[in-house]
Amino acid sequence: ANYGPNPTCKGCLSCSKDNGCIRCQHKLFFFLRREGMRQYGECLHSCPSGYYGLRTPDMNRCSRCRIENCDSCFSRDFCTKCKTGFYSHRGRCFRGCPAGFAALEDLMECVEGCEVGQWSEWGACSRNNKTCGFKWGLETRTRQIVKKPAKDTIPCPTIAESRRCKMAVRHCPGGKWRRPAKTKDKKKKKKNLMERAQKQHSIFLATDKTSQ
């Protein structure tokens, strides 16, 4: 029967004009729909978003998921699908995956990520495999991969990094220190300026003699 604005009493064992379905057939789930101050019963093959099917000897019911930001759940405290923008992890929903876990964007799930150890101390400052003879060099530190990720598509964080450093020993013992190229350029520029000044002075003297 159809009671006007009420849902059709399809699948009901008993139905009320004011309250809709009161009791459902054996395989269906009883869902109590609320619309403002009014509520009425429906008999469904599967529960709507935010609910899960709870089977009991008395009557199967749709029970609300109690997990925040959950779209569908397996039980009251275990979410199987989170709302858009949230990652599923061990039956819960997160904006971002917990520490030690990586996000699978296509499935919106958190899986075990790549674990790395602590950084080592910074290595010796060197350049061209030498620890002397230059003013500046690079120093490097590393860390080891402790646990590989569960899926190959998840990248590990960087395990080596370098930074600029000033060498403690600028002159190599027993070696001849080579002046940096920048200093050579300055010396060459100064020499060119001197030669140009001397040439201009010679032209000036020659012009002065001619005028006399």
TrEMBL record:
Its main location: secreted. Residues 9-110 form the R-spondin Fu-CRD domain. Residues 174-212 are annotated as: Disordered. Residues 114-167 form the Spondin-like TSP1 domain. It comes from the Eukaryota. One of its GO terms (cellular component) is extracellular region. Pfam families: Furin-like_2 (PF15913), TSP1_spondin (PF19028). The keyword Signal applies. GO terms for molecular function: heparin binding. It is found in: Secreted. Signal peptide: none annotated. InterPro entries: Furin_repeat, Growth_fac_rcpt_cys_sf, R-spondin, Rspo_Fu-CRD_dom, TSP1_rpt, TSP1_rpt_sf, TSP1_spondin_dom. GO terms for biological process: Wnt signaling pathway. Keywords: Developmental protein, Disulfide bond, Glycoprotein, Heparin-binding, Secreted, Sensory transduction, Signal, Wnt signaling pathway. Belongs to the R-spondin family. This is R-spondin-2. It comes from Donacobius atricapilla. The lineage of its organism: Eukaryota, Metazoa, Chordata, Craniata, Vertebrata.
